[in-house]
Specification:
The chain is of the alpha/beta class. The protein folds into 2 domains: 32-364, Glycosidases (TIM Barrel, Alpha-Beta Barrel), CATH 3.20.20; 379-453, Golgi alpha-mannosidase II (Immunoglobulin-like, Sandwich), CATH 2.60.40.1180. 24% of the residues lie in helices and 15% in strands. The strands form 3 sheets. The protein has a 7-stranded parallel beta sheet with strand order 5-4-3-2-1-7-6, sandwiched between helices. It has a 4-stranded antiparallel beta sheet with strand order 8-9-14-11, covered by helices on one side. The protein has a 3-stranded antiparallel beta sheet with strand order 10-13-12, with no helix packed on it. Strand 2 (122-128), helix 7 and strand 3 form a beta-alpha-beta unit. Helix 6 crosses helix 7 and helix 8 packs parallel to helix 9. The longest helix is centred in the middle third of the chain and has 17 residues, at 201-217. The radius of gyration is 23 Å and the shape is elongated. The relative contact order is 0.15.
């Protein structure tokens, strides 16, 4: 992920339903992955994207050699996955971390189990970040898990665990590589110690393709190839197109994000990727006409930083999930494990709390589409003949208007109400909207979900975001 520190300077209230207002990362072409527009998917693409659209919620994992340093270097403690570049660590010094990577407490089934219990349907893990170190046994380099004291292929264990749990395994893979001798450009601060003489991007591209081939041949069916680090001018649109096509050749059903796209001086006629990837933000009105997924950290960093305890609250995290779903997108929520293979306690606690909420309300997230309402005091999702309302501020007056809803409500009830007692529906009349007459107390302390059932697909006047 991008190297600058992102601190959320606005969480929308105690319930966290608003988008986080965050600074945009500097890029050669701007925030490409948040704004790229793709042509509508055809029938084949609809079939390929179906599981991903149904999932709505996934786990992101940033883990590697940088986790050993835990964000600390030369008296500073606010680094993370970009520490080699940000702290100007020489290549040979950083390489010594390989001998220290021994995650003896790593348990893939435990990691995947926490994701599943939280209501997540897929796991995306860093097979290689920008530092170039591979968590899989890459036959093309010794800068990989094979050279560590641990030796065991992390990707094999994760893929097997996801398969056992019924989750989709997805790979993050960095296009940029600060370790490989043929990746250009060099970092400015190491230009004197790492001359570019003899470096050839064409050789690096062959290495990248060979690495991706292993990831798509050796671990069974993969849900997503999630690329990153493509923003430097040495990575061109033509290179991106070849990489996208190679992924689809190796696994025709694999989904590829839009960060395989390369740099170009002019707009391209055939933009790449199956979904857009806004980072550390949720677009104000979603991204109409395209599939999209917001990747967001639990705290301020992607990789593990021991000093970073600025974790978002449980209501804020549930709010992010509700907001992305109500706008028709997916949420990819990030964890930065410790070097020993354990999750930070704050992450474990929040995943469990999200899981408790999802255990009751998950049907309002999974398999849903965006809200039909344009003006309403709640967020909502739609699924078949149902609308789900997410109510964080329980009305003191006990009445909740349903502005623009044309289809008569057949039945209404709160998902957290075990008896599923019907909520009274006021049919309106004389121009008044339909309204719910709610019980005095909110059934859920964080976010109550009210299901509306109809005899057919509901219609809302002026509907849609």
């Amino acid at each position: 992920m991008a190297g600058m520190k992102r601190r959320a300077f606005l969480e929308a209230g105690a319930v966290g339903l608003g988008a986080l207002a965050l600074p945009s990362p500097p890029r050669a072409r701007g925030n490409l992955w948040a704004t790229a527009v793709f042509p509508p998917a055809g029938a084949a693409d609809d079939a390929r994207m179906a599981w991903w659209r149904e999932a709505r919620f996934g786990m992101f994992i940033h883990w590697g050699l940088y986790s050993i340093l835990a964000g600390e270097w030369m008296g500073r403690n606010d680094y993370a996955e970009w520490i080699r570049n940000s702290a100007h660590i020489p290549l040979d010094v950083y390489g010594r971390l390989v001998a220290r990577f021994n995650p003896v407490k790593f348990d893939a089934d435990q990691w995947v189990g926490m994701a599943k219990d939280a209501g997540m349907r897929y796991v995306t893990i860093t097979s290689k970040h920008h530092d170039g170190f591979c968590l899989f046994d890459n036959r093309l380099t010794d800068f990989c898990i094979r050279s560590t004291p641990y030796k065991r292929d992390i990707m094999t264990q994760m893929a097997d665990a996801c398969r056992r749990a019924g989750l989709k395994q997805c790979w993050y893979h960095s296009i940029m590589d600060w370790h490989h001798p043929d990746w250009l450009p060099r970092r400015d601060w190491e230009a004197a110690t790492r001359p570019v003489d003899g470096a050839r991007m064409s050789r690096y591209v062959r290495y990248l393709h060979g690495s991706v081939e292993q990831l798509l041949r050796n671990y069974g069916e993969i849900g997503v190839m999630w690329f990153d680090g493509q923003w430097e001018q040495t990575w061109t649109h033509e290179m991106g197109r070849a990489l996208y096509q190679e992924c689809r050749r190796l696994q025709p059903s694999v989904i590829v994000n839009n960060r395989c796209e390369g740099w170009s001086q002019a707009p391209v006629a055939d933009p790449l990727g199956d979904f857009s990837t806004p980072e550390q933000e949720i677009p104000a009105t979603g991204l109409k006409g395209v599939d999209w997924e917001s990747c967001i950290t639990m705290n301020d960093h992607w990789g593990f930083c021991a000093a970073d305890h600025d974790f978002k609250s449980v209501p804020a995290l549930i709010g992010l999930l509700v907001e992305t779903s109500s706008k028709g997108g997916n949420l990819l929520l990030n964890i930065g494990p410790r070097a020993d293979g354990t999750f930070p306690d704050e992450s474990v606690e929040r995943l469990a709390a999200i899981g408790r909420w999802m255990g009751v309300n998950g049907e309002a997230i999974h398999g849903t589409s965006a809200s039909l309402f344009t003006q309403a005091p709640f967020r909502s999702t739609t699924k078949g003949n149902r609308i789900y309302l997410f109510i964080t501020d329980w009305p003191e007056a006990g009445t909740l208007a349903l502005p623009g809803l044309r289809t008569p409500v057949k039945r209404a009830y709160a998902l957290a109400d075990q008896s599923k007692a019907a909520i009274v529906v006021n049919a309106g009349g004389a121009g008044a909207p339909q309204a719910l007459i709610l019980p005095r107390n909110a059934p859920d302390p964080v976010c109550s979900v009210v299901a509306l059932e109809f005899d057919g697909p509901p219609e809302v006047t002026g509907g849609g975001l």
